[in-house]
Design goal:
6-stranded mixed beta sheet, single chain, about 30% strand, 12 helices, alpha+beta, about 575 residues, 27 strands
Length: about 575
Amino acid sequence: MKELQKHILRITLSATVVVSVFLAFGSLAKVSASNLVTPTDLPEQTASAEVTFAQVPEQDHSEDVKTATVTRNAPDFILSNQTGLRTGKGTRFNRFLPSAGYNGSYRSELDDNEKKVFDALYQSLVVERKKSTDPIRVNFDPTIAFDVVYSDPSTDDLSLDDLGDIDDLVLSAAAAFFYDCPEAFWVRSFNYTIDADLMTGKDIKKGYVDWIEFDFVQDAYPNAYKELATYDSGLSAAVNSVKQTRVNESVYETVKAIHNYVLLNSSYDYDALTGSTYTYGYAYTAAPLFTGKGKFVCEGYSKAFKILCGKFGINCALVSGDGKTSDTSGGPHMWNYVQIADKWYAVDTTWDDGSFYQDGTPCPLYNYFLVGSTTYVRNNKTFSQDHINNGQVMSDPTKFSMVFPTLSESAYDRYIVDTNPKITLTTLGASIRLSEPYGIRFGIQIKRDNALASVHLIPEFGTLIIPTSTLGNNELTINTPNVRKIKAEKIYSQDATQYTYTGVLIKIPKSFFGTNIKGRGYLIYIDDATGEEHIVYSKTVERSFYGVAQAAYDKYSAIQSPSESDKAIIKKLQGFLNN
């Protein structure tokens, strides 16, 4: 057997490893093949390696020492257009642990050594906020063992994949960090150096890594680090604005206020699609929302949304995959999952942006706000059909992937339905409008009692109305399709014991005058203890337009000495009933 030899190996991987650039894919963006970086666009030398040995004079046959330096150029690591790390033969399948599941962060999917790398990046960049020019070293004690691969063991020639396991470790930790911590917006590209002892021999093929050092090449975009103070000030202003504009402190209202803040203070940066990813690097970060630039692409929208959610203690994840604008077109995209209670819901601020009121002010949409995988969003497509969650950060040839949170099937229902209501609601009955637009009105009574007095805030009250021909035999609930929620504008009448308000369904076509309609009062209030929104219902009553008209006609016709006004009403009702 060949005698054991010890090689001291220092590996320096150079060239740019871009970890935060996500190819923008907006709702109106046109993505052409020229925008996408594929392995064929990469320099040929990216797959090359140079291995040199300096033989140390033999002193002890049992432990010869050689110094080897391996220099390898890695292609760009771009999250969005998913360029592979290596090309050619011997490429590996880089992925997180097979049994891993999302548990509040992508860090949770890492093994212990990967977490050491993640934590070093977090401490240096998020806590200490080091410059991009400051190297970050991660020491390993005990050292990390890895299998060494040789193209020819008899001559100790190293193959391109001799450190494949360590590459996986570095890239897994880096990907998890940049997905979990977009607040480190000023760093992007990095090189890393691995210091290892290499034990070689025909039967002994082990290496031991002592430390890994990250060298961030430059700021994510020109002068990014110098914008830290402006960024902090803008972020503070954004947090205060969200606090002031949310209706209450519930998670739903906070997420809605964050969603609207992002949309009302930013716009899509189409120039970044064709411009330099360094010159327009800010568009791939959250910085524009807080530094005044105000323009970014989908990655920027998603990162800004996540950062603001984090400021309010709301779990939010960056999610990447393919966005499909049609059956045949689409491209790399990024959006968010938000956790409310024990479920995750999708939010896509990029695709909710781009609409305006007539006066030119932005108009937030809610097509992609807290939706589930089966929620229909547009073009008769569900969210999971136009947002393909493939779990990949990189595509062929490496297929570097992560495990995203499990998305709820249904959209978020903002209300907690009180099965034992604290507040007493009574549906009084129905009346009709005698002039156009014809309508049916349901009256609701709220009892003035201690339960009502204990409620701090009532944001909405009104009536749920739906034709029974649409409803069928199903009980009316907040989730029933085609429910018409009629918000009451004001209290109709009040006295010492009760309030009365009405909900009116107007513009009823004559063809529906004979259709029974169910009405049900509702009141939404905020629980002082939890900040959650509760909804209270009254019992359901069922009336048709003709039925109410007939009951009114019978009532007025029974008057012994009708006034001229009564006679006019009787004549009007008679006309309806004879129509």
